[in-house]
Amino acid sequence: MLRRTAYTLLVLAVAGAATACGRAAPDAEMAASSRGPITVWLSNNAQEVAWGKKMIAAWNRLHPDQHVTAQQIPAGKTSEEAISASIVAGSTACLVFNTSPASVPTFQKQNGLVPLSDFPDGDSYITARGGALTDQYRSPDGKFYQLPWKSNPVMILYNKKIFAKAGLDPEHPRLATYDEFLDTARTLVHSGAAKAAIWPAPSSEFFQSWFDFYPAFAAESGGRQLVENGTPRFDSPAGRKAAAFWRTLYAEKLAPQESYPGDALNDGKAAMATVGPWAVAAYQDSVDIGVVPVPTSGGTPPQDTYSFSDEKSVAMFSACRNRATAWDLLKFAASEQQDEAFLDVTGQMPLRENLLASYPDFFAEHPLYKPFARQAEHIVEVPNVPGSIDIWQAFRDAWTKSVVFGEEPTGTALRKASDRIGKLLDEYGDPA
Amino acid sequence: MTHLSPAADGGRTSRRGAAARHGRIRSLTGVLFVSPYVLFVLAVFAVPLVYTVWISVHRFYFTAPGTHADSPWVGLSNYRDVFTDPVVGRAFVNIVVFLVINVPLTVILSLVLASALNAKIRFRSFFRAAYYLPYITASVALVAVWQFLFGTDGFVNHALGPLAPDPSWLVNAHLAMPMIAFFVTWKQLGFFVMLYLAALQNVGKELYEAAAVDGAGRIRQFFSVTVPGVRPATTLVVIYAIITGANLFSEPYLLTGGGGPDHASVSPVLLMYQKGIEQGHPDFAAALGVVLVCFVLLISLAARKLTERGT
Description:
Chain A is built from 18 helices and 14 strands. By secondary structure, chain A is α/β, with parallel strands linked by helices. In chain B, 73% of the residues lie in helices and 0% in strands. At the A-B interface, α1, α4 and α17 of A face α1, α5 and α12 of B. Chain B: Residues 92-303 form the ABC transmembrane type-1 domain.
């Protein structure tokens, strides 16, 4: 009896372990035309969740036979880690409405993504919706593995009250050129109006450069990417000027070398911040804010100034068994009508051309979003290349060492980082 | 010569059979009781360790189920990458700095505090709870307290005035790792004090009485009776502190923003996380993990030899 019980327990344990470890993939050909219930993941941003629930409810009313369940992306240090783990486990949702373009090459390498270009109307739908802006989102094999969905173009948000306290004109701040920006920053800090002129996170995480160097480089270079045609582009006059500008901010202690444990702009510790339109809703009740483009050395006119997009895409994952439903839902969620609802609820910019003309009522009612809509026409994405995260980490390491802490001249650091990233690109291009 | 009757022989055989059956039942019961733990160890330690070693000698990355991905044998290539990566070297130097500060400090402070808390002092229970509290509090919450204390505008810098370091404690390339070592020492002290308190209960009071009769004062008693009396606990404390210290992750990640300036506080495990999870190089991370296991084993063995010397 005991022996039987012991064997039964052992068999159950082994079977349980085998079931848990068993990973079955759907047949891609069958899944491509299959319809039925699916699950989607939304970002855990409260406004996006509110929009997502309404959108899914509308879909479910129209398609009761293809029921969609919405969940928030599982908790993790970052969404990308949770998604990457679920790709390996084969438990990813059909669609993830918050896929970072920087992680797309990694997900692709994991065979975790469905090429949207393989749907008969895949390419035509994506390019018709986003126009020329979508070119940056094609993978090196020429296919779209993501639908470029919404951008949060990075601009300079400033606290008008702090500017006034420092004796500066809050309605016409002098922030267009590097010299103007530095003079303004000095006045803000030396007058005691704010502890910091601007306070981006100076820490070493790979993505932090998207909110200090990359917007400055995009603006200064007139819309170049960090890597283009397999070559690093930042060890250039534009890159060196942007790095020197930020180095001055850190060297003169106008930007602190330590992360702020909270929201420095909201707490009145910093007079400015590099943020996207999501921040308007977040600050408008607590801070009297103004918006200007990212500065350049010569002061580029706002309508010609580029910045980092901070875009998020929608991607379809290979664990999806009803991909025809997922594709239809994706088009439904990114339709002009849903984009309007999304803009209205979240203030984030749907990745479409001519936003101001497409949604005039919204921008008339919310003028603070207008600069972001104009900026959304001039955005630069992270390069869609294999090893994207490695590349950004290598860049960030050089940045913190030279620009934030001044342990190496910025020009030397950029040259070394460019060499290192060039080698990484070679390695990824030829993994053997 | 004694002849056994068939009945008597049969009885002995039957008793022997019963004893054998009883032994088998006992043995099976034992197997039943240990099997969950054996399965647990196999599932969460042995199999992953073997798999890690396998990954470390292949070009490998994690893929979606059912998809084909080549994992060619690359021999020691991943290990070569690990040993030639300057950041790995920095991570191990950082861990050595951490252990040099953390381990002796942990042993000394926890033994002294345990001895004090073992004596009959007022508010003894309060002090015991007070030292244990940081250990059971989440690192994330404590990190916020330390940032408040040691931040650029923190309490400590205000107190120090012009003597405050620049850059400040947590972003200073020379001070970041020692700060982490002090933080971890403080956080884990309660646990080690508890270990020593338990060990102190086994040190006979008569030894202290004899030492007192021989004229030994408090300090002499501490070094001649307490320290040798808790030596097995010291071995445990040292090895445990080395193992947990070498596996440092949360503190550099949270306290110094992902490894500090120019990798000043990066640890091997933090690097494994960055390489294996963030950057998608589980093969490199696996090789680094195997190197770390060997490193911890060697240091732990050396520490054991050292602490048990003379026993």
